[in-house]
Amino acid sequence: MAAQVRMQGPSRAALAAGQDRLELLLGSAGTDAARFAEDLFGVTDLVASNAALRRALTESSRPAEARAGLVAQLLEGKVSGPALDLVSGLVRTQWSDSSDLTEALENLAVSAELFSAERAGRLDRVEDELFRFSRTVAGDVTLRDAFAVRTPGAERKRQLVAQLLRGKVAPETLRLAVQAATAPRGRRVEQVLEKFLDAAAARRRQLVAEVIAATPLTETQRTRLSSTLRRLYGRDIRVNLDIDPEVLGGLRITVAGELIDSTVLSRLNTAKRTIAG
């Protein structure tokens, strides 16, 4: 299941149809999901970097078969058969905005990568590793600068990700992290990784709770927290835990943009404001 994206009606319908087609192709015997994802990311990068091509592939005045023919001309022999099939189907449909095609291609590429992890029994691991990497980047100003959009050198960024993660994470995690670092399309790496995490949670039809605690939670505490949040939100909740001794005690929980802050630090700050007022 793809992460939710902000698209208007025609583009949203095109993405939904593409997602259905993707799942069908991935379920076919012999389809290499990892190769599929690699091909789709490559097409995403190609389309993202060429505004004229995006317009040619989404212009409604251009016949659908002509758009599909252009895809065949560009990609035949360079990507797998399933990837060519999927992209050809995408460009035959209607799009509200040419940039939506890029967004949809990236979403579908992520879905293929996550399907690969799921089929290998690594989806939970990949989700956790992406979260850890995102927190590592967010918490290290040197890494943030190294991966910043203004910092040139995609190959240098690729090598840095490999240096940090190769041999330590699942292959799907490494590939997604490299994609986030080398092709952010104007976003911060942490933002891209957050989108990938949302896609992983959506694939498992779960909400993600970003939890910050002063000390690690026991397995019993994590289970109790998950159960409480599941009752509160009416859906399964995956807990991503980050440790920050500065919160002193309690938990800071963010679910679907909603903050639940029961930390000692929060209560102290509230008390200070009350006294000051």
Q: What keywords describe this structure?
A:
277 residues, alpha+beta, Glutaredoxin, 3 domains, 4-stranded mixed β-sheet
* 3D shape: globular
SSE string, helices as H and strands as E: HHHHHHHHHHHEHEEEH
Integer tally of domains: 3
> Low-confidence spans: pLDDT under 50, at least 5 residues?
1-5
The count of helical stretches stands at 13
| First-last Cα distance | 49 Å
The largest sheet has its strands arranged as 2-1-3-4
Give the beta-strand count.
4
Determine the oligomeric state from the structure.
single chain
Strand content: 5-15%
Radius of gyration (CA) equals 21 Å
Helix proportion range = 55-70%
SS content category? alpha+beta
Task: Note the main sheet.
Answer: 4 strands, mixed
Mean pLDDT, to the nearest integer, reads 88
Family: Belongs to the ATPase delta chain family.
Protein name: ATP synthase subunit delta
Membrane topology: Peripheral membrane protein
Subcellular location: Cell membrane; Membrane
Any overview of this molecule?
The chain is an alpha+beta fold and 277 residues long. The chain has three domains: 1-119; 121-202; 207-276, Glutaredoxin (3-Layer(aba) Sandwich), CATH 3.40.30. The protein is 64% helix and 8% strand. It is built from 13 helices and four strands. It has helices at 9-26, 33-48, 51-58, 64-75, 81-92, 98-119, 123-138, 141-147, 154-165, 171-182, 189-203, 219-233, 264-276; strands at residues 207-213, 237-243, 251-255, 258-261. The chain has a four-stranded mixed β-sheet with strand order 2-1-3-4, with helices on both faces. Helix 2 packs antiparallel against helix 6 and helix 6 packs across helix 11. Residues 1-5 have low confidence and may be disordered.
